[in-house]
Hints:
Oligomer: single chain
Strand content: 15-25%
Largest sheet: 7 strands, mixed
Bound molecules: S-adenosylmethionine
Amino acid sequence: MDITVARGIRTIRTPGLNTWQRGIPVAGGASRETAPQPTFPKLPKAPGDTDPYRAHATGTTYHRVMSFVWSGSAAKTRIVRSVLATAAAVPERTITVLDLGCGACRGWPAALAAAPNLRLIGYDPSPLAVSEARNNLGGYAADLVGMEVLQAVPLQSDVVISLSVLEHVFDRHSYLGLARKHITSNGIFHLSYDDGHFRRALSADRRSEAWSILKEWLINASAASAARLGSLNRYQSRVDRGWIDAAIARAGFDVVETRYENLSALKDLWKLVEPSAQTDFMNDWIAYEETLNLRYAASLPAPRAGDVVNLWQVMPTRSLVLRPAP
Ligand SMILES: C[S@@+](CC[C@H](N)C(=O)[O-])C[C@H]1O[C@@H](n2cnc3c(N)ncnc32)[C@H](O)[C@@H]1O
């Protein structure tokens, strides 16, 4: 990322960001270091500047953005915070976000409450998830749409987001094609996928989870045959990095950023942290993972669990920022 200071106004330039995300002044012409700092929550301590939200959002906006937490996931928290900061940077505009595979939309009410100019469009093929999402989103600027809407005209979304969905998608080319169809030419696609379903292991200290682990093994083992017989609702299969990177290019996207997230030990520890300390814990978690990505990512001699990067062995979420290829 290239950060420049022009006439007392700090601007941020990121090759993959929309024009309305470039050159956004930090409040009062102050540099980020001298801008008023919130007393709560704690500032991330990472050395890099790779997250736009930290440079864009200041004062109360900064506080609002940094207070957002998606329970139990550093990846989802970081990604939605960056969408919130994007919206905060252009308060005069409505920012449309299409969530492909929105599930029950559990994180969105808090996000929509924090960004009045955000409009969510959610799609999910599961009727159960859609009915839960409808309950969760009551009163917020959000619409739930069916496939018939996605098959019609392009929705021109500023942001497309898809979190923990790709590994459940059977026809991955069509799914990427939908994202490409509904994004504006200078929009951003946050694509984040997980490998956790494919690495759960039985252990003596987790006997209470034995049945759910066995069930997941059976689902994984039968997913492909069930899909061939037309049953897709429990489909899941590991995402191979080489395959998906080629499919992303084929769908017409450029990769602007890629990172590994949700360190397994910290995800486990999250559940044991006092609720009053969870926002601070989340900020430290995100900051630590940023350091790991910046300093310690390295390639292994051969892929393991579908990816060649060392961090993937303990950080089973890979998050990409994509933009439509010119
Ligand atoms: C693990 S849930 C994630 C839900 C939500 N994104 C979240 O993070 O809470 C995976 C979701 O992907 C949805 N899904 C499966 N196949 C899909 C497809 N082809 N397109 C969009 N969503 C799909 C499922 O119905 C399910 O709700």
